[in-house]
Amino acid sequence: MPAKNIDLTIIGGGIAGISAAIYSHRAGLNPIIFEKNVLGGQLLYIDTVDNYPAVYPHTPGIKFVDVLNSTLQEFKVNFINESVEKVELSDNGIVIYSENDTYLSQALIIATGAKPKRLGIEGEDLLIGKGVSFCAICDGFFFKDKDVAVVGGGNSAVEEALYLSHICKKVYLIHRRDKLRALDYLQKELFSKNNVELVWNTTVEKIYGEGRVEGVVLKNLVEDKKINFSVSAVFIAIGIEPVTEIFKSIVDTDRDGYIITDEWMHTSRKLIYACGDCRRRPLRQLITAASEGAIAGLSAYKDLRGNYISQ
Ligand code: NAP
């Protein structure tokens, strides 16, 4: 069966992909977004959107997603609710293999984002969904009035701990050093919480429990001592890794797998662009993902149609 023709394929329906779709569509292309889940990406898991101009303070991420969906509907941007399994280059264009179909696209914007890193310790994989979680907003409610642990010392870990402090009896924030790397205002808020205890210089060695999380074995790195904590859940927030596996043979990535682009979001391959958390970038924020999506969308338009865009 011949492949269906598309002028621009966007893989990933987070803020970067959606922004790319809006800009390229308004410029005159007919983009199609492929997203295996619902649209919204990491926004779906953000408690409140801060640091974004002209958004009311404490706007829930999900509300932001609602507005984005309305925008896409108004512009009639096409969305295919399937994952892309493989991408190949051919003489006629870029071949996109989705779960159920094959498409031939003239250009491609990769906006696949990033996923949470794992600790790689005993009990972690076995107890995912049974107390081990990577998302406090999704799972925190199940541990109402219980003691829980959060692992990590960055913005995500502190935000997870803050969110859980409103639901859970006690939150242990376990960090491998004696300093957090989270932003100052988040740290300040964290330190003001009576039910959050910082466990410094400590790693998690093992998560245990019969059918559900019952506790963690910790190692204090300074005293070289093991400690046992009883907790009902462990929220892991130790950073993210890019979702770029299927593109590594096509475009250049750095040693961590982030796609390398220039400032116009061009990858090493003509007519392929990358934006958002899957791209090597200095600042991982909603606003930078949105602006990179806009640039990628307009770059694709410019390269496909040969039209001048003011730089
Ligand atoms: P991150 O900033 O990379 O922080 C990861 C944290 O986990 C660090 O404290 C790190 O410890 C610790 N860690 C890493 N590997 C570990 C391991 N194997 N065992 C124990 N601890 C480990 O990651 P993130 O907090 O997920 O944030 C990712 C990006 O999104 C960042 O650029 C962040 O600024 C951004 N973000 C921003 C916001 C916001 O602006 N509100 C919210 C969330 C995320 P060390 O400190 O010792 O390295």
TL;DR?
Helix 4 (155-165) runs parallel beside helix 5 (184-191). This protein has helices at residues 15-27, 61-75, 136-139, 155-165, 184-191, 286-305, and strands at residues 4-11, 31-34, 48-49, 59-60, 78-80, 84-90, 93-98, 102-110, 114-116, 132-133, 147-151, 170-174, 196-199, 202-208, 215-220, 225-230, 233-236, 240-242, 272-274. The protein is built from 6 helices and 19 strands.
Main attributes of the structure:
single chain; 311 residues; alpha/beta; 7-stranded mixed sheet; 6 helices; 19 strands; 29% strand; binds NADP nicotinamide-adenine-dinucleotide phosphate
Structure explained in plain terms:
The mean pLDDT is 95. The protein contains six helices and 19 strands. It has 311 residues and is α/β, with parallel strands linked by helices. The site of NADP nicotinamide-adenine-dinucleotide phosphate (NAP) has 20 residues, from helix 4. NADP nicotinamide-adenine-dinucleotide phosphate binds next to helix 4.
- Structural class determined from secondary elements: alpha/beta
Largest sheet: 7 strands, mixed
- Which percent range fits the helix content? 10-25%
Mean pLDDT: 95
User: How large, in whole angstroms, is the Cα Rg?
Assistant: 21 Å
Shape: elongated
Strand composition percent: 25-35%
Unique bound compounds: NADP nicotinamide-adenine-dinucleotide phosphate
Q: How many runs of DSSP E, i.e. beta strands?
A: 19
Number of helices: 6
Distance between the first and last residues' Cα = 42 Å
Q: SSE order, as H and E?
A: EHEEEHEEEEEEHEHEHEEEEEEEH
